[in-house]
Amino acid sequence: MKHLLAVLSVAMAASQAAQAQIAEKKTLTLDGAKQAIAAAIAEAKKSNATGVIAVVDDGGNLMALERLDNTFGAGANISIGKARTAVLFKRPSKAFEDIIGKGRTAMVALKDFTPLQGGVPIVVDGQIVGGIGVSGAASAQQDEELAIAGANALARGKGGSVATAAVTYLPKDKVSAAFVKGMPLLEVGTYKIHASHRTEAGKVEIHTKDTDIIYVVDGSATLVTGGTVADPQTVETDEIRGASIRGGETRQISKGDVIVVPNGVPHWFERVTGPLNYYVVKVRSVEGRT
Predict the structure, then answer these.
(1) Can you give the pTM of this predicted structure?
(2) Range of the domain at 109
(3) Within 10 A of 250 (CB to CB), how many other CB atoms are there?
(4) Per residue in 93-141, pLDDT tens?
(5) 234-287: pLDDT as tens digits
(6) Is the domain of 144 the same as that of 246?
(7) 137, 160, 183: which is the final residue of a domain?
């Protein structure tokens, strides 16, 4: 009996070791790529939009492409580039357009890189299996909306029911490192999670399409919301900054507080008492309202 138990123990250990060395990986099929394109085309037809839709696998290789009538010819290569950028960098291509727009122009030198809004990763059960890019719709925002519609189609089962939701795990080391510099933890088409860090007051911010859900982790600050913004300036699409707020409502916020700032509402960290760490969940509304 002891020998049998010993054999079973060795067998189980060998099995566990083998499992640890092999990871289950999902693969995007041609049918799946066509399904994503069909969903994007269906969304485009709702508003009589044009566009080229490209789908690539997780290595950035083209799997399928469709060009709607009256779409400019260059859209094909652009849509492929957006899809490849989204999957190879594992982020929506708009993220890089925003980064470059803020001054980090050196990124344009990267190879196989199309930093234009309209490319998103295709995620199934938490794994990135490919990317979808759209070019040639009425606007960059609509390019992204069509791409998101295509990507979302692969997360739905028969009859439109939603399959098992994708789970994103962010280990504590990554979260802690993000708070040191203040940087995004996750950015997808409709929401973002930022680990924010402040040591001093900032500028007034207005997000015309993003509702900010703020949770204070450490520190305290004076937060002013509403009122009239002094010297407002548009710094990028849907983003306005200002020097200060006249009027408005002033609150002292500290550890454990939750603040929800709807899109379009000015908010300003007027004073910061020591280091301030806080999560921001940004929920985007395509219509400008959440």
Answers:
(1) 0.50
(2) 30-160
(3) 15
(4) 999 888 888 888 887 778 778 999 999 999 987 888 999 999 999 999 9
(5) 998 889 999 999 999 999 999 999 999 999 999 999 999 889 999 999 998 754
(6) no
(7) 160
Cβ neighbors of 44 (< 8 A, separation 6 or more) are: 50, 51, 68, 137, 146
Count of structural domains within the chain: 2
**Which residues 6+ apart lie within 8 Å of 37 measured at CB?**
53, 55, 64, 65, 66, 132, 150
Determine the Cα–Cα distance for residues 117 and 134; give it in Å rounded to an integer: 9
How many angstroms separate the CA atoms of 178 and 188, rounded?
A: 17
Two tokens, residue 98: 């925003």
Statement to judge: residues 38 and 153 lie in one domain: yes
- Indicate the burial class of 222 (C-beta count within 10 angstroms; 0-12, 13-18, 19 or more): middle
Tens-digit pLDDT profile for residues 180-199: 888 888 877 678 899 999 99
Q: What is the Cα–Cα distance from 132 to 150, expressed in whole angstroms? A: 7
The CATH number given to whatever domain includes residue 249 is 2.60.120.10
CATH of the domain at 91: 3.30.450.150
Asked, for residue 80, whether it belongs to a domain, the answer is yes
